[in-house]
From TrEMBL:
Signal peptide: 1-28
The UniProt record lists the keyword Lipoprotein: no
GO BP annotations listed: hydrogen peroxide catabolic process; response to oxidative stress
Residues annotated as binding substrate: P177
Protein task: Removal of H(2)O(2), oxidation of toxic reductants, biosynthesis and degradation of lignin, suberization, auxin catabolism, response to environmental stresses such as wounding, pathogen attack and oxidative stress.
A Gene Ontology term for the protein's cellular component: extracellular region
E.C. number: 1.11.1.7
Species per Swiss-Prot/TrEMBL record: Eutrema salsugineum (Saltwater cress)
Places the protein is found: Secreted
Residues annotated for heme b binding in this entry: H207
Cofactor: heme b; Ca(2+)
Name of the protein described by the UniProt record: Peroxidase
Length: 339
């Protein structure tokens, strides 16, 4: 092999130096840039073992209860969509607030694993007292829920503070989307969080985990309101058998459920296959596969898991950074369910 000339060697060295400088600048920007007051290295000095503690606390729970990931992901969605990502959904009512706080919204039916966030908080208080907010724990728990079920490990900026109050259940009722939400409603909702249409379709992919309770499915049997449009007739028959429209008790619809897709314990693209085929449990799950604005992305995600994971990761960061409290605008609660 012929040795390089001095000129060529000098040019190569210069090119390497330029690339190194560019890479170090990009890396530095990613680590230092705040996302609305958040930072990717926020706890680097104050609680360096944070992510390890969250992961080790959650992993055994996922083995004992395989439905935990979907519960934690839903918990994050419902916290962030009401008043922003501030852990207000964890606050237990006291005194005359009873039955009127956020968690008692009818749309928060079936919210679970709030106590798991409190348990993780207890472990973190022993390791690094008064440092980690409950709102950051919710985000990290949801991030682990995605990763440990086969999805991407998302890098999320941290530094959220907790709210000092919880909104009323009426606020939650108005801000959380109904089970009958259509494509217009969902695109408008996520556009308010600066998501593109592609990101909006990607974040809906969280429905690949978990189940849908029958009380949210029954409205799809009403032919008059169009909520059963784009539903495969065989799938409609299946839903009617699993979720009978008329039952002896209203509690039946609350207790029964159907899986969100064919692989409801795995974070994958099966949700999009079902959306294309008209096998969505909710109105949005079917319409997203037919609407000309969203169908191209549904088809793209069904065919390309990497593209879905990349778009979902971007959307996850935007959702988890929505209306966050930072600096002196919030607090770090010592106990997650109390102010």
């Amino acid at each position: 092999m012929k040795p390089k000339s001095k000129a060529a060697a000098s040019a190569s060295c210069f090119l390497v130096m330029v690339i190194s400088l560019l890479c170090s600048c990009i890396s530095g920007d990613q680590m230092e840039t705040n996302y609305e007051g958040l930072s990717y290295n926020y706890y680097e000095k104050t609680c360096p073992k944070l992510e390890d503690i969250v992961r080790s606390s959650i992993s055994p729970m996922f083995i004992l209860d395989p439905t935990s990931p979907s519960a934690l992901l839903r918990l994050m969605f419902h916290d962030c969509q009401v008043q922003g990502c501030d852990a207000s959904i964890l606050i237990e009512p006291s005194g005359d607030q009873n039955q009127f706080t956020e968690i008692y919204s009818a749309k928060n039916f079936g919210i679970r694993k709030r106590e798991l966030i409190g348990s993780i908080k207890t472990s973190l208080e022993a390791e690094c007292p008064n440092q980690v907010s409950c709102s950051d724990i919710i985000i990290l728990a949801a991030r682990e829920a995605v990763a440990l079920t086969g999805g991407p490990l998302i890098s999320v900026p941290l530094g959220r503070k907790d709210s000092l109050s919880t909104p009323s259940k009426h606020v939650a009722d108005s801000e959380l989307p109904p089970s009958t939400a259509d494509v217009d409603t969902i695109l408008s909702l996520f556009a308010g969080m600066a998501m593109t249409v592609e990101e909006s379709v990607a974040i809906m992919g969280s429905h690949t985990l978990g189940v849908t309770h029958c009380n949210n499915v029954l409205s799809r049997f009403d032919n008059a309101n169009g909520t059963n449009a784009n539903m495969d007739p065989r799938f409609e028959t299946f839903l009617r058998v699993v979720c009978p429209e008329f039952s002896p008790s209203s509690k039946t619809a609350e207790a029964t459920f159907v899986p969100n897709d064919q692989t409801s314990l795995t974070f994958d693209t099966a949700y999009y296959d079902d959306a294309i085929a008209g096998r969505g449990n909710l109105r949005i799950d079917s319409e997203i596969g037919a609407d000309p604005r969203t169908r191209p992305f549904v088809e793209a995600f069904a065919a390309d898991q990497d593209r879905f994971f990349n778009a979902f990761s971007s959307a996850f960061v935007k959702l988890s950074s929505y209306k966050v409290l930072t600096g002196n605008n919030g607090v770090v609660r010592s106990v997650c369910d109390k102010v």
